Amino acid sequence: MKKRIVLNVTTSADWRRRPVGIVRVEREIIKAVRARFDSSVVPVYFDRYESRFKSIKSKFFADIVSDAWVLSDDPDNDAGNVRGQLCRFNAQDNDTFVTVGSDWSFRVPDAVEKLYGPKRVMVSALYDLIPLIYPEFTPTREFYDQFDYHYRKLAIQAKSIFAISETSAETLREFWRERQLIDVPQINVIPLASFVRTDADEPLTESDKKDLASMHNGEPYILYVSTIEPRKNHQILIDIWRDLHAERGPNCPKLIMVGMKGWGSDDLVRSATRMNAFAAGKIIFKEGLSDRLLKELYRRCFFSVFPSYFEGWGLAATEAASFGKVCVVANNSALNEATNGVMPSYHPLDFPGWKVEIDRLLDDRSYRETLETKIASQNFSRNWRDFGRDFCETML
Questions:
Q1: Same-domain check for residues 147 and 237
Q2: What b-and-e string marks burial along 334-361, b requiring 16 or more CB atoms within 10 Å of the CB?
Q3: Which residues pair with 4 in a beta bridge?
Q4: Has residue 199 been placed in a domain?
Q5: Splitting the chain (396 residues) into consecutive groups of 10 residues, what average pLDDT does each group show?
Q6: CA-to-CA distance for 307 and 329, rounded, in angstroms?
Q7: Same domain, yes or no, for 183 and 260?
Q8: Which neighbouring-strand residues pair with 228?
Q9: How many domains does the chain have?
Q10: pLDDT on residue 197
């Protein structure tokens, strides 16, 4: 019987906006597996109405993988069109079941167990265990229970697990040790990738140019790329910009924060938009930007920042480094891994440290260029094709 790679594409199929975080990584894995194994791939989708996996028709699978899928004009309604493209799925003995999306929400291991019994067929993923170690940074306590159940279940059911960082891998090993789970699967760390600077990038569209002009008129700016939610710690930057604007007035640099507004962000955004610095155009929120425009923002920024309380990796920090830009990071979790340990780093609550560092990077060109030289000596050229290749060769 021919070996098959059953590929769970539920998370990507449900996401019709520009990909971020887990969605971006899952889509890159899907593309790599599809390109490398072709006819051996069986795409499946978890039908929540029937609590079981179903096969996806091949043409529709191609649509999900395409770039057009994440550029929907009506993402909420379009996401509901998937069920009409499904058909019956039959498990086979030689299957490897690859599932690397947001699996904890739907008890995916239980659905796989119904298909294959106790046999270990799952290649699963670990991004972070934030709901377990920082449950206050999740919308409800339900996330703690979901993650606790999910990663206990993977301990006895997964064939192997892909982790995005050594930091994340060690948190899962510790989680299993604390719960006295012994016969656990191997965890393989496959670092994430980023944009790579090239001279052949697509030119900006007229819409991109209009967006760029609304943000950047030649003034220096600092960039933070992240979903806006409490864990990402935008608050410390808002507080710093209050001081910077009071001290520097019209010479205050802009703070451009790119990312969709997530849960718990309303009060922060509402407060920031009432600030004098915001009224003066020194604090800018943007979302839904194209990759073309995001690359341009990295190229032109003075430097970037990433003060998050905890990250399983910290993709935007790696992206900044790939453009040769300094990224001041929080001195916790995987952010030092994501930047090869060459970036200035501070505790996420160290207001004086962050403020002094930002002032120095703004005013001391020699210091900033010394850091940029250090970044240039590192290898930040890993792209998504490299990541996809490593995933296929390591996990499959």
A1: no
A2: bbbbbbeebbbbbebebeeebbebbeeb
A3: 95
A4: no
A5: 92 90 95 95 94 92 92 74 87 97 94 96 97 95 96 97 97 97 97 75 88 91 97 98 98 97 94 97 94 94 98 96 96 94 97 98 98 92 94 98
A6: 5
A7: no
A8: 261
A9: 2
A10: 64
Q: Which residue is listed with tokens 């990584």?
A: 25
12 shares its domain with 45:
yes
Q: How far apart (Å, rounded) are the C-alpha atoms in residues 375 and 287?
A: 28
Phi, psi angle pair for 130, to nearest 5°: -55, -45
Helical spans, DSSP H, in the chain: 10-13, 21-37, 58-65, 75-78, 108-116, 130-133, 142-157, 166-178, 206-215, 234-248, 266-272, 276-279, 291-300, 315-322, 335-338, 351-363, 365-376, 384-395
CA distance 350 to 356: 10
Q: Are residues 254 and 173 in the same domain?
A: no
Q: Output the pLDDT for position 218.
A: 87
Take residue 167 and report the two structure tokens written for it: 């930091």
Q: Could you write out the DSSP letters of every residue in 20-73? A: -HHHHHHHHHHHHHHHHHGGGEEEEEEETTTTEEEEE-HHHHHHHHSGGGG--S
Backbone angles phi, psi at 372, to 5 degrees: -65, -35
Q: Look up the CATH number of the domain holding residue 27.
A: 3.40.50.2000
Model-level pTM?
0.93
Reading the block at residue 214, the tokens are 């609304």
Which residues make Cβ contacts (< 8 Å) with residue 309, sequence separation at least 6?
134, 137, 231, 232, 233, 330, 332, 348
